[in-house]
Write a structure and sequence with these properties.
It contains seven helices and twelve strands. By secondary structure, the protein is α/β, with parallel strands linked by helices. It has a single domain, classed as Vaccinia Virus protein VP39 (Rossmann fold, 3-Layer(aba) Sandwich). Strands 3, 4, 5, 6, 7, 8, 9, 10, 11 and 12 form a ten-stranded mixed beta sheet that branches. The chain has a two-stranded antiparallel sheet with strand order 1-2. The C terminus is likely disordered.
Length: about 240
């Protein structure tokens, strides 16, 4: 494993199997998490989102779930190296669909579920030869429907689910949220340059909320070959060599 600094003396342990990219920074920023939030992250991987949330005003607690033991081990290593209070991040090795293993996660009390899900349905596109990456990218063990159903079990009324995905799959996300009693409330597209087609969307839904979708201004990553001020803010005080 390699230790990647992300600022404020916090390190993420990465490997060939479990790494991180720009989408994790975008999703964390989009979530607008608060210090009082009780958070559950599905598919934590190397733990980048949970660790990013520790940089300034951490949430009250984060339950970080992943089905792969190696991912959980990497997160635990990052927590230890970064000297983070073990009460702040609770790694849980479990299938997000297996509610029997959720005895320590408070049902109906979570205020924010966050997930950077597999972007491709199982069996579509070119799949990685690495099993860990195939699971992370191709929905081998869970679908968007599974994520929304599980999130609905955990969230309190008004609790939020924040996801990211490829634009061509946006209808699947919206339909899955609504079928689970989570109303899409906020949407933002991300483009590399102004005028480019978006390569990512960020979507927030609220449990048992009224229908109304707020479109936010597009997030533009580059202008004239350089990061925009908006994008620079994502990486403030962070090393960017491997993003």
């Amino acid at each position: 494993m390699k230790q990647e600094p992300i600022g404020n003396q916090i390190f993420v342990c990465v490997s060939e199997e479990h790494r991180f990219g720009t989408d994790a920074f975008l999703l964390t920023n989009f979530s607008r998490y608060k210090a009082k939030d009780l958070v559950c992250e599905f598919g934590t991987g190397c733990g980048i989102i949970a660790l990013l949330m520790q940089k300034q005003k951490p949430p009250a607690k984060i339950y970080a779930l992943d089905i792969q033991q190696q991912a959980i081990d990497q997160l635990r290593a990052g927590i230890e190296i970064s000297k983070i209070d073990s009460e702040k991040i609770v790694p849980v090795c479990t299938d997000l669909k297996d509610f029997r293993n959720w005895e320590n996660i408070p049902y109906g009390q979570i205020s924010l579920v966050i997930c950077n899900p597999p972007y491709q349905p199982c069996g579509s596109g070119k799949e990685s030869s690495l099993e860990a990456q195939r699971i992370a990218r191709h929905g081998v063990y869970c679908t968007v429907e599974d994520i929304c159903r599980s999130a609905s079990r955990l969230l309190n009324t008004g609790g939020r689910l924040c996801l990211c995905g490829r634009p061509e799959r946006l209808p699947d996300y919206i339909c899955s949220m609504r079928e689970s009693g989570i109303e899409p409330k906020r949407l933002q597209f991300v483009s590399r340059n102004a005028g480019d087609m978006p390569w990512l969307f960020l979507l927030e839904g609220k449990k048992n909320a009224k229908k109304f979708l707020q479109m936010e201004k597009p997030f533009i990553m580059y202008q004239n070959g350089r990061l925009t001020k908006q994008a620079q803010a994502l990486y403030q005080n962070q090393e960017r060599e491997n993003l």
